[in-house]
Design goal:
729 residues, alpha+beta, Growth Hormone, Chain: A, Immunoglobulin-like, 3 domains, 4-stranded mixed sheet, 17% strand, membrane
């Protein structure tokens, strides 16, 4: 779900952390020490500790993140815009903080101790986050404070250890055991994706299927990832005596930044034009820095310039956990024998990535090559952007269809009215005033809302009714922005009516809403599942709305006086709002009439699958290929810097979402179109930049100017193979 990495050599194992073989310290690791191996193999016995640690950590991170948007929306009671903003602010912070983790590891603690100390911070963040999800802990302000503190610590913890865990695993192998190291990273990659796949399915189930404190159990959904992070830390520490540990070294990223800063400063000081021009602006750093470093920084800055348009892709990609999850809440998630949670749809991405990798590597790419099409990296990345934009175009179409299927909410100076006919024959209702005339002949089984213009906030309406040739009338006040049901019934021999206020919004979280109207003469006590509707007065008393999980409700209980009746209400579907009228016939038997006031979600959640397929395919072509390309264009000592730039594109992508969510007030379908359009524009810009980019081979000699290059892996065939694998850092 995140980024690929190149784990082919020790100095390119992670975004930042690197160490050459000759930079060992005897007081940290003795080179002559015999490293324990797994039975019958060359694998260090320390490797299982690192793999299990990574599985637990990724489970912890993605499991927590899977339910985060719904936690903001329904536990902290934020609106969709604020929930999306904070979600992407957190995601962006997780990709800014690796820089600090790299500085700590390279300049101070080394990889091993950095992982230990920042994992402790990580665990504390999870624990605080879990405590903040326990209702009795405090008021809403306390929950918000604990949640934001926990998220900040989690972001610093996961970002801090992100640069060094994979590199630390690579450190455990001797230089001559490259084949075993290659297999290790395949296992490492599998552990990452399995952790993500399992957690994005499991934690939403813990949230929704387990009830605690009379609602969704967010404390458990956050608590299980916290336990997994504790397990990750314990497992990693348990292997301490078995690890090879290298000391900290100079900060390469810092040296590059200082070199660029000095070049800019020196050029500014000599801007008058009295000094000889230099071939490249970085040459102004030659007074202080060696030519080798300057040339390597030149190679890096050329690639970093190509990175400028890339954040737009991540702005779309990371909305799977925010806007797409909110979209899924308004869809029908029934698959016959089972249903899924809206936040479980995120599981599709890691599943499709595992499926698509062999499809692309063994099928699509070889087929394109057979067609003699020059499908080089920049072109692959461009196609990946187009696929992501198409995914959002499909999301926009789906959003339009969802809006069409919803009941229109009443606006200012408008009220909605439906007639519920509880009599045995059809009734005609005439609504007269100076502005409108409406006539309805409605049976209870086919209710529909009429839009009534309302001059004032509270206006009286006269309802003239004709029933079995008998005319009658009643008068009620209607308010704008409200929906009502006019209940028509026969009171002895006279027709009568009663007005009740309806809900105007779909139930939250894909639940169903239900209320009862008691048409009998005696009070009725009703329980349905875990919902207690209390005592509902007779003579058309109305209960409050209760929200229930989607399902078939065939065993409700209704007590009237000393008699108890069973209620069979049938299906209460996703997002539907229902009114159930209870009547007694002459023999005392309960008669049930059910009205669907707000239509249930009619569009199936499976319609999101095409957009997930497109964006997952786009991720493989964009993310895997992009890092492969950048690796081939940088000297080995600068690969960590390029990974720093790559991670920052993800951070800035989330920043783009944050800005648009807070500044652009659009309907959701229009916002999806905006993102798709922006990515198409950025795609064109990137294509032009790629066309004029002049690739270099490993020794820096220029090739053609087609925007392509012939792959010449700096670390051998093993690196190329590993780069074709997608990992979540």
């Amino acid at each position: 779900m995140d980024l690929p990495q190149n784990p082919s050599a020790r100095d390119t194992l992670s975004p930042f952390c690197s160490l050459k073989d000759d930079e060992r310290s005897n007081d940290v690791f003795c080179a002559s020490k015999e490293v324990p191996k797994l039975c019958g193999s060359r694998y260090p016995i320390s490797i299982p500790f690192i793999v299990v640690n990574e599985f637990c950590e990724r489970f912890s991170y993605y499991g927590m993140k899977a339910v985060l948007t719904l936690y903001f929306l329904y536990y902290l009671h934020w609106d969709e815009t604020l929930s999306t903003t904070v979600y992407h602010a957190f995601s962006g912070l997780c990709y800014f903080t690796p820089i600090f983790g790299a500085v700590i590891a390279d300049s101070w603690l080394g990889k091993f101790r950095t992982i230990i100390y920042l994992s402790v911070v990580y665990v504390l963040g999870h624990l605080i986050k879990s405590i903040g999800a326990i209702p009795p802990v405090g008021d809403l302000t306390t929950h918000v404070a604990l949640s934001m503190t926990g998220l900040f610590l989690i972001a610093f913890g996961t970002g801090g250890i992100k640069p060094c865990v994979s590199a630390f695993g690579g450190d455990q192998f001797e230089a001559e055991h490259a084949h075993e190291r290659s297999k290790f990273f395949s296992i490492f990659y599998l552990a990452i994706n399995l952790g993500s796949l399992i957690s994005t399915f499991a934690t939403p189930a813990l949230r929704g299927d387990v009830k605690c404190f009379e609602g969704d159990c967010y404390a458990l959904a956050f608590g299980v990832p916290a336990v997994l992070m504790v397990v990750a830390l314990v497992v990693f520490i348990s292997g301490s005596s078995l690890y090879k540990k290298y000391p900290s070294k100079g900060n390469i990223l810092g040296n590059v930044c200082k070199c660029i800063g000095f070049a800019l400063e020196n050029r500014w000081k000599h801007r008058s034009g009295q000094y000889p021009k230099r071939e490249h602006w970085l040459d102004w750093a030659s007074e202080k820095y060696p030519n080798k470093l300057i040339q390597e920084v030149k190679m890096v800055t050329r690639v970093l310039f190509l990175y400028i348009p890339l954040p737009m892709f991540w702005a779309l990609f990371d909305q799977q956990g925010s806007r797409w999850t909110l979209q899924a809440l308004r869809m029908n998630a029934d698959f016959g024998g089972f249903s899924i949670k809206a936040d479980q749809m995120q599981t599709l991405n890691p599943f499709l990535i595992l499926l698509f990798i062999p499809v692309f590597d063994l099928g699509i790419y070889p087929l394109v090559k057979l067609c003699k099409f020059n499908f080089k990296p920049i072109r692959r990345m461009t196609v990946g952007m187009i696929l992501a934009a198409l995914a959002f175009a499909m999301a926009a179409i789906l959003e339009v269809k969802l809006d069409e299927s919803n009941m229109s909410e009443p606006v200012a100076k408008e009220s909605l009215l439906q007639v519920l006919n509880l009599a045995s024959e059809p009734v005609e209702v005439q609504i007269k005033d100076s502005r409108s005339f409406s006539q309805a002949s409605l049976k209870h089984q086919d209710p529909d809302y009429l839009k009534l213009p309302v001059k004032t906030e509270n206006e009286n309406f006269n309802f003239n009714m004709k029933y079995q040739g008998i005319y009658s009338s009643c008068s009620h006040a209607l308010s704008d922005r409200q929906a009502y049901s006019l209940i028509f019934y026969q009171n002895d021999t006279e027709p009568a009516c009663k007005l009740v206020k309806d809900s105007t919004q779909k139930p939250l979280k894909g639940l169903a809403a239900l209320r009862f109207i008691n048409a009998g003469s005696e009070a009725a006590d009703i329980t349905l599942g875990n919902a207690d509707f209390g005592s509902i007065a007779g003579n058309y008393g109305v209960s409050a709305y209760h929200t229930l999980e989607r399902g078939y409700y065939n065993h409700g209980k209704c007590r009237i006086g000393n008699n108890e009746f069973s209620l069979d209400l049938g299906l209460l579907d996703f997002g539907g709002s229902y009114t159930v009228i209870l009547k007694q016939d002459s023999r005392g038997k309960i008669i049930i009439q059910k009205s669907e006031d707000i239509p249930a979600n009619s569009i199936h959640i499976a319609w999101q699958i095409p957009q997930y397929v497109l964006i997952s395919a786009g991720e493989i072509m964009f993310s895997v290929t992009g890092l492969e390309f950048s690796y081939s264009q940088a000297p080995p000592s600068m690969k960590s810097v390029l990974q720093a730039g790559w991670l920052l594109t993800v951070a800035f992508g989330n920043l783009i979402v944050l800005i648009i969510a807070q500044t652009v007030a659009l309907e959701q379908w229009a916002e999806f179109v905006l993102f798709a359009g922006l990515l198409f524009v950025v795609c064109i810009i990137f294509s032009i930049m790629g066309y004029f980019y002049i690739p270099v081979d490993l020794d820096g000699s220029p090739e053609d100017n087609s925007g392509d290059y012939e792959k010449k892996p700096p670390s051998g065939e093993m690196m190329l193979n590993l780069l074709k694998k997608k990992t979540k850092l």
